[in-house]
Amino acid sequence: MAARTHAKHIDVVDPNNSRRRFENWKKKNTKGLFPQDVKLIEEYLDDMLNGINVSKTKRGQRSYSRLSALTHKIPKVAHWIKDRYNKRIIEVTNRECHLLFNDLRNGVIKTRQGKPYKSHDDYAKDFLAFWNWYIRKLRREYNQMTKAQKAKVEKSDYFPENAMQDVDYSDGQKTSFHYFTEDQYKQLRDRAKHDYRVMMDFLYDTGMRAPSEMMNIKVSDITQDKDNPNVGFCEIRDEVTKTFGRKIKLMFCYSQLKEYIKNNKLKDNDYIFTKNPKVVNRYLKRLGFRVLKIGEKSFRKAGKHKTVPDVKDGLTLYDFRHNSACYWLPRYKSETGLKYRFGWKSSRMIEYYTEFLGMRDTIQQEDLLIDVTLTDIEKELEKERRQRELMEDRMQAQEKELKQRESDMLKNQLNMKKKLDQQEKKMELLMAILAKSGKKEVVDVLEKT
Fold first, then answer.
1. Is the bond leading into 211 cis (omega within 30 degrees of zero)?
2. From residue 200, how far is each of 205, 365, 372 by CA, in Å?
3. Which terminal residue of the chain, N or C, has fewer Cβ atoms less than 10 Å from its own Cβ?
């Protein structure tokens, strides 16, 4: 590598040996390339390792998993360009890139086994990332020059056209995986050994990437929900994921996981799952074939002169992430929540699983309700609120009017009673006067009246 001081990477479990492959990339991947290309690719990888001159959308150092992928794909594209056009990677034109990646997409360019490349879109995206880095590098060099230095160079050399501009890097192929229903999953877990069952439930619940994220989960990353002792949280730290860190709920595996940690006397700093991923995948393949007939019977080498039974195209750890997505998709009310749980930056995978499950029409209607008519609903609610307030005002006015009427009636009643009392007193007074005058007959008539 270039003679720079490499930034220290946070130590994480590396189940795929990405760091070793990255550190040894020049021995395997650069034979036959132009020396200038090797030097430029080396500079690019060194910058990515140290988080220098990276894109604005994602700052910081690149993981060894990401670096390992780049050490394979960028030199491979450089080989294709050299073999096809006899050019360096910075000399290729936009038209030539279009033709090259069209042939890669259409299966014209094949692997050593004579098969089409499955991840053709990744090659295009990674080469685009390389070109974006190269353009940033040139512009930075030009901007750091003095006026005298700029006068001696051609400005156009430092502002080249991006050779990958408008090149199609969308994924034309569907992600393939072994799908199983919830009932089939129950069959699988019921036939699995206890430690594998714990792992399977954990993956089916969380949907996290395995083995990269799963093998980096420590006991300290697991916490209990304060409101529900049967529900927990799992924190996936930034340094162990290829997208973003997140803290997700363990909805049905927490109690079992807590018991597993206790029975194995694991401490806070211990990793929970430590089995070799190759061993795990072999077990899952045998289990999937035995229970659900997933895959085909085959044999693998186990020494110079020995073969053992195996399963081809069988169940693997990553199938659990796909099936977990199928499980949670109809249960999440918001697309944002589902993307957060699975660490997705775009909605592309949601669209894929939606189509896979045959939920296209339902999802579109729900999306329409949530995303399109939300403003209409808010307006309708505001209208209802105003009508309710108007009705309340009217009721208050009527109550006030009614109270006023009741008050007036009460006053009238009091006035009438007062008048009657006055009349009664007058009558009594008259009777008293007549009685004194001796006109008893008149008094008798008034009393009867």
1. yes
2. 8, 33, 38
3. C
